[in-house]
Structures are given as structure tokens and as C-alpha cells.
Amino acid sequence: MPSLVIAARTVIAVPPGPADAPTAVLSPGWVRVEDEVIVEVGGGEPPVAPDLRLDEGMLVPGLVDLQVNGFFGYDMVDAGETGWRTVVSRLPETGVTAFLPTFITAPVHVQAEALERTRELLPRLPEGSRVLGVHLEGPFLSERRRGAHNPAYLVDPTPGALRRLLETGLVRLVTLAPEREGGMDAVRTLTEHGVLVSVGHSDATAEQVARAADAGARKVTHLFNAQSGVHHRDPGVAAQALADPRLSPGLILDLHHVAPAAARLAFNAAPGRIVLVTDAASAAGMPPGRYELGGEPIDLPADGPPLRADGTLAGSALRLDAAVGNALGLGLDPAAAVDAATRVPADLIGRPDLGRIASGAVADLTWLVPDASGALRARRTWVAGREVWNAANGHSPSTEGRAHERTGP
């Protein structure tokens, strides 16, 4: 691949220096890419004439979403190859260059079969967002905090169940309730197998969450939603998520799942630890109507997130580029807002080569620009230095490029 130099009005990047240097706002800034990798980053004007100049918005790392149940009309757990190809090739429209498809609660054997189907189809997927593995959200969840999950399928995390799910090699993240019978042992087992463990759909006390972190848990799924909270005398999951520096709370920043004041509280209490996620359902990217989540119907209203028939929130219709825009709208520093959707989730999932504009990182990039309504939108997106989305022509230059990345734990 030839060298590519991009100059931009604003670049959210890790400037030259130590690898753990903080992300900074370079305005203006520039990036040079060679052989799918970022080889130089700098502020001011580039040393050579740029191949591309971006005079508005900001150039940021490709966004990393650790919780995507579905998108564009397809539920990932039971989507066929057409659905997977659609989601993978179109997620760059939202700035997402890497993601974890999320399978919600189902019988263990059904989840295992879905993992096996996924393993077979991954090598056939087109160019687009990287599939980093699979996130299992359940079935080891609390009945009291089940949210939209089917209570008939909730079970304890037995050694046999874990073994069946892990044998495909695709599981990278598991959300569970550590207070269930065998929950702490499950955290240890999953951690030993290189799987990121997230506390979620849980009625645990703060003390139980701390014990889960002692056992290896490092994330909390959709902060404030479907979990015990921040009572001042009876702290639960949310309180420990904010107070414990070992934990990275996920946040669905559609301003419906979490009110603005609570979102500000989260960012202020846990700076550098918040992970923006979409929790997108199949309704995301689609008009109002009826869709599915985990094989059961959900309805997307004209305004707001998808709902079960009883009014329970059922995932979201959020785009991750819009979530970054919402974070900026809350007054968050641009570097911190971008980090929450890039560097923080990439590091958490064990991919420090992703989620940053830095020398040596993979050249996954997206150009974010406010649209006519002021919402932040991806105008162009690159994966490994190759453009895969350009809003000017409404499609990717290629949907049949390199074999899609497949990563196991």
C-alpha cells in the first residue's frame, strides 16, 4: 500500500513520546500511514504535501464498540451470512472500525451453536469493521436485574457450561452476575482463559463487586442500567464501578438510558475509565418499527430506544459517533470523549494496537464532522489505511477486499 499523508484541522492523537503518553488535541495535525500502520504523527503542517486535507471536524482513531447486539435490521446471534456481511461492511458508516458482536441470554447450547456458526463464517466476511471476538451477555445473570433478558434461560455459570462456551475460542467478553452460585469461580476461570469479565445485570453489593474485581473482573456493563445502584448506605454495582479504579464502566450515552447529570457524574467520578458503548439492537440504523433482540420482538418508536412490549428498554438505536458527540455536548474534553470510544475499550480488550492515532498503531481512522443538525457523524473511515466509508459517495469503495480479521481470546 502506498504512503498516505492526511492533514487535518484537528487530530485526536498520542503525540510522539512515551507509549503511555496522554491523548492530545493537535490543531492542526497530521498523520502518515505506510503498510497499514501509522508511522508518524505530528502537530502543525506535515513535512510533505498531504494526500488529503480535512478542513473541518476532527480526525480520530477508529471507534471500538464492545457491545453490538445487532444493527441495520440484523440480530447478530441468529443472523446469517448476509446479515453479518451487512453489519461488518456498514458499521464504518458510524465510525466503528472494530467491535464485539454481542449474544444475549439464551440456553447455553444455543449460544454455543451460534458461536460455532460465527466461527465458520468469519473468514468469508468482507472488508469493514474488525470482529474482535464475541461478547456473551448472559445467561449467567440475576433474575432481579434481568432487564430485557428472558428469565427462563438464566442459569448459574457451572464449569460445564463455561467449558462448552469457551471451546470455540471466540469468547472475548462475558457479562455475568457474580453473586450467582459459582459466580466468583466463573470470574476466575474466564480470566484465566484470557476472557474479559464484566459485572452486569447484577444485584450484587459493592463488596461482592470488589470481590469479583479481586478475582479478575475489569468491566461493568451499561452503568446504572440493570444493576444495583448508588445508595449512600447500601452501595451496589454502580457505586463500586465508579469507586474502584480496577473497573471500567460501560456507558450507553444516548441520553435515554442515562440522564445527562448521571453521565456527568460517571465521567467525573471515573475519568479515563468510562467506555462508551452502543448496546445497539437490530433496530439501530433502521426506521421505527418492529425488530428482534435475542429472538424476541422489540419495537423502535419514533423517538427513543427500542422497547419490549412491557416497556422495558431493549438495547438501543445509538451510533457510537453520536455517543462521542453527546459526550462533547456534556462538556467533556475532546481527547477524553474520543478516548472513551477508542483507546479505553481497545486497551481493555487487550488490543493496544487499536484505538489510538500513534506511531506503530494500526491505521484505523475516522473523520468525524457535525451534520446539519449538529450531531457528530463519520464522514470518512479507514481500516488498516484503506478507505472503507466515504459519505460523499454513500458507500465503501470496496466491500470485497481482504479477508476479515478473526481474533480469539
UniProtKB/TrEMBL annotation:
Q: Which residues bind Zn(2+)?
A: 137, 201, 222
Q: Where is the active site?
A: 279 (proton donor/acceptor)
Please name the Gene3D superfamilies in this protein's record.
Metal-dependent hydrolases, Urease, subunit C, domain 1
Q: Which cofactor does it need?
A: a divalent metal cation
Cofactor stoichiometry and binding? Binds 1 divalent metal cation per subunit.
Which Pfam families does the UniProt entry name for this protein?
A: Amidohydro_1 (PF01979)
Summarize where substrate binds, as residue positions.
148, 225-226, 233, 257, 313-315
Q: Which InterPro entries match?
A: Amidohydro-rel, GlcNAc_6-P_deAcase, Metal-dep_hydrolase_composite, Metal_Hydrolase
Domain Amidohydrolase-related spans what residues?
58-387
List UniProt keywords, sorted A-Z. Answer: Carbohydrate metabolism, Hydrolase, Metal-binding
A single GO BP term for this record reads:
N-acetylglucosamine catabolic process
- What are the GO MF terms of this UniProt record? metal ion binding; N-acetylglucosamine-6-phosphate deacetylase activity
Can you tell me which family this protein belongs to? Belongs to the metallo-dependent hydrolases superfamily. NagA family.
The protein's name: N-acetylglucosamine 6-phosphate deacetylase
Name the lineage.
Answer: Bacteria, Bacillati, Actinomycetota, Actinomycetes, Streptosporangiales
